[in-house]
Amino acid sequence: MSFQTIEAKPIAGALGAEIEGVDLSKPLSNHQAEELHQAFLDHKVIFLRNQSLEPAQQVAAARLFGMPYEIPFVTPMDGYPEVIEITRERNDAGKHNFGGNWHSDMSFQAVPPKGSMLYTVEVPPYGGDTMWVSMEAAYAALSDGMKAMLDGMKVMHSGKRSYGSRGTYSNDSNQTGTMKVGADNSGDAEVAHPLVRTNPETGNKSLFINQVYAVRLADMTEDESKPILDTLIRHSLKPEFSCRFRWSPGTVAVWDNRCTMHYAISDYDGQRRVARRVTLAGETPV
Ligand SMILES: O=C(O)CCC(=O)C(=O)O
Ligand SMILES: [Fe+2]
User: What is the pLDDT of residue 176?
Assistant: First the structure.
C-alpha cells in the first residue's frame, strides 16, 4: 500500500517498515494519523527514527495506535503509570534480559495488549538489536491439514515462568539495577486463548502462541503439549518470517502483539541501554 502523507520502507519480506515524514512530538493531521495506523497494520512493526519524546509526549503519541494502559508486575516510571523504563546497566551482565525470549507482550492477560510502543533513549554502539517474527506468515505457511487440526484449539497462557511465585523475577538476583519487576502467586494464573487468532482490524489469521507465556494446550499437560508447541514455535522462527532492527537513539517502534512475537537480543554486556515502553490495550482474542 502506498501512502500520501508518509513513506513506508520495508526492512524485510515478512514484516517491519521504517516510516519517514512523521514528527511524533507534534499533533498529526487526521489523514497522516490514519495512514500511520494503516502502516502499523500493514507492516506489523513500524519504526520511526530521529524522534524526541518526553514520557508524556510518548503517551500522547501512543494514543494514535490505541489506548495506553498500566500493566501488572513491572513498576512504571514515577508519575507515568502507562510508561515502563527498560534499562540494562553496564554491570547487569548475567542478569535476566527483559524481553530476552520469544514472546508477545503480556499474552497471559485475559485481554492481552493490541500493541506496544518502544522509544529508545540510549543504545549501545553495537548490539542490543530486537527481532520480530510474523505469526501471520507462520500460520499461512502451514499445510491445510495442520491448519484444520489447529482450528478451534485453545492454549493456556500464564505469566508463571516470569512473574509467578517461582518465576524468573521471584529471584531478586534477576532484578536489573533500576528496573523493578514483581513476581507473586497472582502470576501463576492461567487463561485460555485460541491457538489461531483473527486480527479484528485486518481479518487475517495468525498463530497466537509464544515461548514464554503459552505454557500448554488446553486440557493437556505441559509434557503432552510441549512437542506440539515446540514444533509450532520452531516453524515460526524461520528466518523468512522475521526481521531484525538496529536501533539508534530516539527511535520509536510500534508493534502488533496480536500477530507477532519479538525477542530482545542480549549481546551488549558492559554497555548501557535504556528504552521506554507504552503498552496499548487490546481485545479478547477470537
Ligand atoms: O528491549 C527491547 O528491545 C524489547 C523489550 C521487550 O520485550 C518489550 O519492550 O516488550
Ligand atoms: Fe516484549
Answer: 66
Residues 6+ apart with CB under 8 A from 264: 86, 97, 98, 99, 100, 128, 130
In a domain, 286, yes or no: no
Give the ligand 1 atom nearest the CA of 84.
Answer: 9
Q: Which one of the listed residues 43, 92, 96, 105 is annotated catalytic? A: 105
CATH number at residue 236: 3.60.130.10
Please state the atom number of ligand 1 nearest to the C-alpha of residue 105: 10
Query: Whose atoms come closest to the Cα of 253: which ligand?
Result: 1
State in Å: Cα 131 to ligand 1 middle. Answer: 10
Ligand 1 pocket test, pick from 95, 98, 117 with the greatest ligand atom count within 8 Å of Cβ, gives 98
Q: Return d(Cα 244, Cα 232) in angstroms, integer.
A: 21
Point out the ligand 1 atom lying closest to the alpha carbon of residue 247.
3
Asked if the structure places residue 65 within a domain, the reply is yes
Q: Where are the strands (E) in 144-229, listed by range?
A: 154-158, 190-194, 196-198, 205-207, 214-217
Number of domains in the chain: 1
157 annotated active-site: no
CA-only gyration radius of the chain, Å: 18
**Strand-pair partners of 214:** 157
Q: Which of 103, 157, 216, 276 is catalytic?
A: 103
User: pLDDT under 70 in the chain at which residues?
Assistant: 1, 176-177
Domain extent at residue 96: 7-280
Spacing, Cα 145 to ligand 2 middle (Å) = 31
- Does residue 2 belong to any structural domain of this protein? no
User: For residues 155 and 190, what is the distance between their CA atoms, to the nearest angstrom?
Assistant: 10
Q: Is 285 part of a structural domain of the chain?
A: no
- Cα(203)–Cα(73) distance, integer angstroms: 32
pLDDT tens-digit readout, 260-278: 999 999 999 999 999 999 9
